[in-house]
Write a structure and sequence with these properties.
3-stranded antiparallel beta sheet, 9-stranded mixed beta sheet, 2 domains, TIM Barrel
Length: 386
Amino acid sequence: MAKPGNIMPLPPLALYIHFPWCLRKCPYCDFNSHELPRDLDVSAYVDALIADFSRQYPSAGDRPIASIFIGGGTPSLLPGDAVARLLAAIGELAPLVEGAEITLEANPGAADAGHFSAYRDSGVNRLSIGVQSFDEGSLKALGRIHGRADAVAAFQTARQAGFGNINLDLMFGLPHQTQEAAMADLRMAMGLGPEHLSWYQLTLEPNTPFSQAPPSLPDEDSLYDIQETGLEFLASSGMERYEVSAFSRPGRECRHNLNYWEFGDYLGIGAGAHGKLTLGGGQVRRNWKERHPRRYLTAPQAEAGRRGLGTEDLILEFMMNALRLRRGFALPLFEARTGLPLSRIEVSLRKAMDKGLLESLPGFVLPTELGFRFLNDLIGFFEAPA
């Protein structure tokens, strides 16, 4: 860990807000999400979020908030006035960077024109729409509550509401999915004209219905073909792959996620939300909130846990994030974010370069094409010996 008294410059500060309810839990999802209760008091949850933020923000050192991300769950179940009240309260408690990116996640099965217009009026300036697929059979297999027409309508409704910055979430490697079907999804997505695309492989996460009764998924060769063909198509469509599973038009990268990948700081409010803060004396701390929504509502200002990051944690977590970026990272960023000298990773950097997984430019380190493809192998060079 950095020596006591080391003055680490404070990184940018973001805010993550978790809304933990959905109309129905999808069988592949391992996020902290729960089916929407009939007796949900939205106003009480907003009150809890505001109380949570009011307690946490002073520990962040009065930094302005550079981005806000309202995720879930299905935040588009929130009424517009609830989002407006929440964002207004945050703005009264903390300054926001001018032009701060404010994202809200929306599901096509829980979206309407009134909500979208109200979100825009409240200050939300970016939507992330969880499409996952445009294929009716795939959507059914994934347990989604929307169809292809709903997904298209949600995008068009967002445009009509004035959103000029929209992300689409899309998965591949779906049950029984062929390369042709995966490419049809991509063509449909690009035909809508989003500014950003999150395109990632379906994985079977522990403790989900899919992990307990696995569906038939494409084999490794098929997945490779899908990914390679998809990457070529997205590049030809003008989408830059700036992170492992994130693609954008020039200048439309997700600023909130970039802050994660550059090992910036963030507060997390809401049931199960996590945060990371750089403190005085070269300390970096993670904390998290109570996962169960009803228990969170009884004590929103309490932490469920916290831990300080030791030297090995700092190195590994920085590299796990920074090497997800295609451009890699500037060498001074490592010292600025961790408080550690570059000498702590020089040997590992050299070994990864010798294996052809990393390359260096003046003042920069970035994954090679091979390293980007085999990212877990690359990150393994920075793990502490067992």
